[in-house]
Design brief:
There is one protein chain. The chain has about 425 residues and is an alpha+beta fold. It is about 30% helix and about 25% strand. The strands form six sheets. Strands 21-22-1-23 form a four-stranded mixed beta sheet, with helices on one face. Strands 2-14-16-15 form a four-stranded mixed beta sheet. The radius of gyration is 21 Å and the shape is globular. The mean pLDDT is about 95. The structure holds uridine-diphosphate-N-acetylglucosamine.
Amino acid sequence: MAGFVIKGGAPLKGEVRVSGAKNAALAIIPAALMCGGKVVLENIPRIRDVEIAAGIVNSLGAKARFDGGGRMSVDSSGLCEDAVRWSEAGKMRASYYFLGALTALFGKASIPVPGGCKIGPRPLDLHVKGLGTLGAKVTQGDGFISAAAERLVGSNVYLDIMSVGATINIMIAAVFAEGTTTIENPAKEPHVVDTANFLSAMGADIKGAGTDLIKVRGVSRLHDGVTYSIIPDQVEAGTFMTAAAATHGEVVVREVIPKHMESLSAKLMEAGVEVEAGDDSIRVAPGRALQAIHIKTSPYPGFPTDLHPQMSALLAAAEGRSTITEGIWEKRFQYVRELNRMEAGISVEGSMAVIRGGAKLAAANVAVHDLRAGAALIIGALAAKGVSRVRGVEPIDRGYEGIETKLAALGADIERVRDKGDK
Ligand code: UD1
């Protein structure tokens, strides 16, 4: 186990470049298998989940290689397996995209039941319903989910919940289905649009990604030779913006798409933080004294659930009582106990975090439960005076590229240590 030792209390200052979006990369890498040749992906974040996705690609006979400088080449000419058996695959939630991609290619596929963050029940019923509507029989047993179809045929899929994963998986599976597939009530997250853009660059016929209705007209093949640059990571950008605000720092977050950050920017400004958007950057600086605000997380363009814990860490110090109502994940609140070790003054009432406000965060010894909880603890430790230890940071490495290096470049006193503080 690894940890961070953070000496907090100093404002972050300077510029930070955001990496490519984890959740887009995790969909685009399996989608890349569908062209039967080579593609080059740019702006790929070098994070644990992406390494797992690359490992799965390699275990299937195709080749995924990090070429340096944020580039990855994926060559699917040798793809020969329709079953993901690689043991690491079960550790990553987004391995479900291999089910859609391999079923589209081979008419059958199986994957280990996906794992991922422990933030609440993570059913796959909508993925199953979607693939089933296209004609696949999906079964589960012995820790694997399998799909089989004589042929996939386009159909209308209505999603009862705006699920990001189900939207993307059905979109991927529909690329080679006969006729037209429509997805009603789809998720509109930026990575849904990015995956659709990538598939379209390879010759897929997809319209409406990012709107209330996605239409996929089946094609018989995709072409290789595409070079595609992945969008910036909205959650990483938001984490740096919130960290800057929590430390009363002044930070320019570079290589972002400010439009993707609108809900966070609006809420930070409402709380009194100065936020200024450029073409592809956002500057965050201290404004008036932090005020309490109320947030509800919801699908894009609503406030992202993946920025909920970080925002709690910020609002702990605001004047007055704030609330964050969680609209996506039941167990998003696992961060509360650890943040309260820093005297954050947060309680949970049903699906709402109630943040007392006015806290002076204190340095503490805390443990990471999940990826975004870990980000919140780092923010808390940066804001608290004194030396904090954040233990078990592996979940953070799943989603943030070199977070300690980027924070250190902003002036943070942060050091990666082995468990128990040994270097
Ligand atoms: C993705 C993101 C994750 C983010 C989440 C919500 C990836 C790899 N992960 O997760 O970081 O927190 O979107 O923005 O992109 N649901 C069902 N049945 C299903 C699928 C989902 O009921 O078949 C429910 C879930 O329990 C949850 C809601 O739908 O309450 C949203 O889940 P979904 O959008 O699918 O999340 P993920 O794709 O797993």
